[in-house]
């Protein structure tokens, strides 16, 4: 079972982002004696659990910001030597390199890859006006036709944005949190279902289960490319929660040096632009090309508020339960 | 009471019951006798309405019920397998038919108790069927079939599967019950002792066809055909042609001659049957003029015994079966036939003995 | 199948009504399967009913999808091995429980049923944490052991109910004819209770083959099973290859069932 | 030609020593080693050995959302069981007493088992969606994301497990008892009620218990077909483990759920003889 | 050949077999006869090694095999249920024992074919057991038990469950086979006809205890005790005390006197048994001096018949059962006892007739 010495194992979320990533990895592998094998898992916890249960089996992982925070707590990540990845420091904007979840005790443990925002999408054939704000989804006409994201922290983040608050502050301020939760309850009123994976949000839109659905921009773009151009993505005027995907090195890898080499290759500018193009998401490169800035949820790192996972992670358990109560309100 | 006309049943290609007609009078006990697979159950099921006849008619109390569902015929039936409801107590089993026939709770209890006593199980009402012995189960099955006073009782081999002792006991008990209640009954069996000992009339069935319907004595003494003669009781059999010698009827077989009685046309081809209990066996050495056979009838030499009152044939003992109250001796006659004789128990006859087999012309059944 | 004539004699109206109810139930039961089969022929990149023309492109994709075929392979290997283990342990326990007399027999036999009673989520979590402790590596060993635990109650129940009606004279006959108890089991007992063994194997196989809830905790890289693969794909969007795969399995199953009649004596 | 083994693969001295009790020990041992122990460890994990009460997680598990989820699970489980039994009974009855094509129809009953649950639930989702075949026909069915949808979905998924035991128990009914009932004056429906139904209780009980267990512990059904208000206990356990990453709470919920289920089944056992009934599977 | 000493078996508290000893000589056919539940199967299973005796010893060919596993005893056994392997053809069934006894393929085929012919089923080798009739299955079962030439053949009620005709056929066939092969056989049955007609020796068992072991004729004519007398054949029974009148032995019962033969001590309490075939029934009206009863013996008046050579008692016919070859008449004597008599078939006797029952003192068995 054990990985052969000249195989690198990559663990990701699967799907389009994984395929895109694998394509770039493959370019590197074609010029080396290494092979890259991709595995995917169902969710963040599953991924972390898989690394734990299979020590030494994985070399490189793609995690989202939650996963990074959790991964650090579980100690499944190895530090990255940025000196060995010059392309990263050169091509990625400075502000994006030291986000809280990328650094542990002063050492970099994650390299930011793409990021996006969770806005919403709606079916223009069924809605005869333009939707622009988080307020719009609370309209009575959408009762039972709205689907939202089923993850407490993300959900509360968007609700905080909707009421003009910062989720990181809500973490410290019980009163503010109550306001956020009140907003979540208000949005819940129309909601017929919470989705926990991007595919389901798209499925709801496609099958017209949902008229309005909280969604990821890249997904909606892909759906439009499939001919569903009556589905419109909205970046609400109040803004939206930002999420991030990162690359990290799994603790216990026996191929530290090679992985660094691979990472360096990945962060070559050409490769990054290709990745962004394939994924339909922003990558925080210096001088982004026009195709990238045209993405519906494009925003430079300066304009984005990232979550402070050191505050939020300990609250996740509690929030998860509060959110569960919101659903049943 | 019950009248069956032209009843016929095909299972696909197979003709299971072939144009059977008969009638049963009020209060009679009639037996349907035939070998396994001859269509007895099929016939009974058609009468009960459990199977649809291909053709023919069933009349009960003069009314045509052929099209009626079984529950509307007011019939009682006891099944070979007892078919007691395993999830009900004895009492509930008996009460079932009463409930279905609209008896109210009080009548029901009274009737159940009466029948429990009638079948001699007054204290077994609260047992479940699987707690009873085979014979007890059969009695409950009968009580269940009779409790709601059906017009007719159908019994499908209710005694098969019981051992000999129990079977004889149940047989007596069943007859007593039937006479007491006076219920018209049609009893299905493949056991000739059952049929002969219990019935007012026996209907013999073979391969779906009715062979004979008569009083047991007639069935045994004057079988209508070879099937009836051999199926009901054992026999020694001869096939031959009738001739008349000295004004007395004689049947000439391939190798011997047998004296018979009665009016028969010369030249008629007949079969002869003699019951073993009508046949005597005597050791040759014991006959008056010791030495060899008393009467020699080999080849086609003129018969010497034909004119005498008694048929006597030499032979060799083949088998001796001691059955307790009697012994069955099988003798191979010199003329080739096999004769069966019953002797008193434990006779001084052994396999291989030379013997003379004798029987009265009166006892020969000519068919 | 013999038919009770008294039921046959129901009026045509009743028969018609029963038939209608039956068709409705079958329709209900088979709706998902029908949808799956239909959507496998879509020309779209996601499962959709092919209202405008069918395409077999997803079957082509299926046979080119090494990851999915690999998962299928894993599923088969795991389901087969786990079912064999279940049949072995379930049968041993069933024989023991039917034949031996000992105190608290009834209560003890409940232990054999526990894995069926306890939700597989719990089993999955419990197993993976336990395996970590006792050094059973995830992947094949964990999957096979885990699935055999999840399916052993089915085998136990099936074999036990068959053994209750087993005629012990047959075993005694074999002994008197000169076979010892092991040989007797192999030559007489096993073939005669083989319907239960086969049914146990079949149920174990399909349960294992379709198990996701506990399985998600037990897999390792390279040993993902079809349901887990499907679930992983869920996050990013199912392609109709899954439907093509399901259709292929359904067809194999139906054909095998219909053919098996010709191989029976 | 059947295959006959002539010589024992097990040495004689061993054969002589293996008794039926050893076989019991082998089976129980296997389940104990890889099931009872892990579950016991889980119980240990559910206890809080850190600060606060030992039963901290249990105290939380008694809180609002979890109680709701427990209640919902048992209600859905019960309703699903009743619905499934009705469908399964009608189906099995037809197979045993009416149909001539038993094998084909039985095969159709088990065919869905070859399609992963999730895919079947998605099939139902698509079928009842506005863009599904019903929607195309202009039928508006507002079924999805309701309790009804979840229960129907579960009934659909577990129907095959209910048909088989009921089929077996109906098949074991002596046809003569049905004939007897008819002759005794009961019509067809009365016969079903008074004779067929009671005699098939073992099958019904077995089917009921299996479906109840499976349905109560469902995870995917409510996840795919249910809305925000249809989360069942398995979803809550998965959430506390996967999202909240609270193993202690997940374990506590698991322990409570198991205890409730076993208690329920034990109570049921007092009424029906379950061991016997389950033998009918 | 087979020697059983002090064999005892407890099932928990229940004593199923109680200290039974007997021996069977080479080539003999011995029957173990007893009612259902008397321990016959238990005894047989202990001999075969299928059950462990609580106490006692089993010797085969002089060797103690009590501790041996069944497969090491070289025994042949036919089961009541036939116990044919349903998944094997007839040929495979017969070959099974040969395989286990190490016959090679060639010998096996030859032996199987020989036994198929011996049991008269040469063309049925490739059938499966469920394709055969009950009698054919029994014959295969026997072939299987005999093919590997066991030292002894044990038969556990192999004929139970077969119908009467088939049973008689099988009985003859079995005897022929046993004589042909000369194999030592122990046959278990609860059917007295089986036991009397087939065996060299009958061992009667009741409640786990041996009651009598003797030649069939002895068993029937000189039963060792009341159990044997009533279980083996039917009887009319009297209980009384021996006295001597006119130098002739007389047994005085509560209400009548019966003349007997033989040497008996005065005052001895005895039971008397008379077989129905030794009893005659005559209608009272048919006796020489018409009118009422010939001989009156009611109350304790002095017997008038005691001194005569024949016992004659008045009574009323209770039941008449026509059994084909004979009729069984049940008479309630005026003295209270119930007498059973066999008469020739279909006699002119009806229920309620006043009759005289007579039997020879010679035919009375005194126990
Ligand atoms: N449902 C059926 N379908 C086809 N053939 C049948 C059916 N029932 C009976 N038969 C055939 O019809 C013939 C008569 O059967 P039936 O059961 O009436 O015989 P029987 O006289 O009752 O026999 P037995 O004494 O063995 O009970 C047999 O050849 C039997 O195989
Ligand atoms: N395994 C057992 N455990 C307890 N009691 C038993 C067992 N087997 C038989 N018995 C009892 O022992 C007694 C003798 O049984 P056995 O089977 O030897 O009788 P049998 O003479 O063969 O009867 P049958 O003619 O009915 O076959 C019976 O009372 C029976 O109930
Ligand atoms: Mg019949
Ligand atoms: Mg016995």
UniProtKB/TrEMBL annotation, chains B, E:
<comment type="similarity">
    <text>Belongs to the ABC transporter superfamily. Sulfate/tungstate importer (TC 3.A.1.6) family.</text>
</comment>
<keyword id="KW-0547">Nucleotide-binding</keyword>
<dbReference type="GO" id="GO:0043190">
    <property type="term" value="C:ATP-binding cassette (ABC) transporter complex"/>
</dbReference>
<keyword id="KW-0067">ATP-binding</keyword>
<dbReference type="InterPro" id="IPR017871">
    <property type="entry name" value="ABC_transporter-like_CS"/>
</dbReference>
<dbReference type="InterPro" id="IPR003593">
    <property type="entry name" value="AAA+_ATPase"/>
</dbReference>
<dbReference type="GO" id="GO:0016887">
    <property type="term" value="F:ATP hydrolysis activity"/>
</dbReference>
<feature type="domain" description="ABC transporter">
    <location>
        <begin position="2"/>
        <end position="232"/>
    </location>
</feature>
<dbReference type="GO" id="GO:0005524">
    <property type="term" value="F:ATP binding"/>
</dbReference>
<dbReference type="Pfam" id="PF08402">
    <property type="entry name" value="TOBE_2"/>
</dbReference>
<dbReference type="InterPro" id="IPR013611">
    <property type="entry name" value="Transp-assoc_OB_typ2"/>
</dbReference>
<dbReference type="InterPro" id="IPR050093">
    <property type="entry name" value="ABC_SmlMolc_Importer"/>
</dbReference>
<protein>
    <recommendedName>
        <fullName>Molybdate/tungstate import ATP-binding protein WtpC</fullName>
        <ecNumber>7.3.2.6</ecNumber>
    </recommendedName>
</protein>
<keyword id="KW-0813">Transport</keyword>
<comment type="function">
    <text>Part of the ABC transporter complex WtpABC involved in molybdate/tungstate import. Responsible for energy coupling to the transport system.</text>
</comment>
UniProtKB/TrEMBL annotation, chain C:
<feature type="transmembrane region" description="Helical">
    <location>
        <begin position="239"/>
        <end position="259"/>
    </location>
</feature>
<feature type="transmembrane region" description="Helical">
    <location>
        <begin position="110"/>
        <end position="132"/>
    </location>
</feature>
<feature type="transmembrane region" description="Helical">
    <location>
        <begin position="68"/>
        <end position="98"/>
    </location>
</feature>
<keyword id="KW-1133">Transmembrane helix</keyword>
<keyword id="KW-0472">Membrane</keyword>
<dbReference type="InterPro" id="IPR051789">
    <property type="entry name" value="Bact_Polyamine_Transport"/>
</dbReference>
<dbReference type="Pfam" id="PF00528">
    <property type="entry name" value="BPD_transp_1"/>
</dbReference>
<feature type="transmembrane region" description="Helical">
    <location>
        <begin position="196"/>
        <end position="219"/>
    </location>
</feature>
<dbReference type="InterPro" id="IPR035906">
    <property type="entry name" value="MetI-like_sf"/>
</dbReference>
<feature type="transmembrane region" description="Helical">
    <location>
        <begin position="17"/>
        <end position="41"/>
    </location>
</feature>
<keyword id="KW-1003">Cell membrane</keyword>
<feature type="transmembrane region" description="Helical">
    <location>
        <begin position="138"/>
        <end position="159"/>
    </location>
</feature>
<dbReference type="GO" id="GO:0055085">
    <property type="term" value="P:transmembrane transport"/>
</dbReference>
<keyword id="KW-0813">Transport</keyword>
<dbReference type="GO" id="GO:0005886">
    <property type="term" value="C:plasma membrane"/>
</dbReference>
From TrEMBL, chain D:
<dbReference type="GO" id="GO:0055085">
    <property type="term" value="P:transmembrane transport"/>
</dbReference>
<keyword id="KW-1003">Cell membrane</keyword>
<feature type="transmembrane region" description="Helical">
    <location>
        <begin position="23"/>
        <end position="44"/>
    </location>
</feature>
<feature type="domain" description="ABC transmembrane type-1">
    <location>
        <begin position="70"/>
        <end position="266"/>
    </location>
</feature>
<feature type="transmembrane region" description="Helical">
    <location>
        <begin position="74"/>
        <end position="97"/>
    </location>
</feature>
<dbReference type="InterPro" id="IPR035906">
    <property type="entry name" value="MetI-like_sf"/>
</dbReference>
<protein>
    <submittedName>
        <fullName>ABC transporter permease subunit</fullName>
    </submittedName>
</protein>
<dbReference type="InterPro" id="IPR000515">
    <property type="entry name" value="MetI-like"/>
</dbReference>
<dbReference type="GO" id="GO:0005886">
    <property type="term" value="C:plasma membrane"/>
</dbReference>
<keyword id="KW-0812">Transmembrane</keyword>
<keyword id="KW-0813">Transport</keyword>
<dbReference type="Pfam" id="PF00528">
    <property type="entry name" value="BPD_transp_1"/>
</dbReference>
<comment type="similarity">
    <text>Belongs to the binding-protein-dependent transport system permease family. CysTW subfamily.</text>
</comment>
<feature type="transmembrane region" description="Helical">
    <location>
        <begin position="245"/>
        <end position="272"/>
    </location>
</feature>
<feature type="transmembrane region" description="Helical">
    <location>
        <begin position="203"/>
        <end position="225"/>
    </location>
</feature>
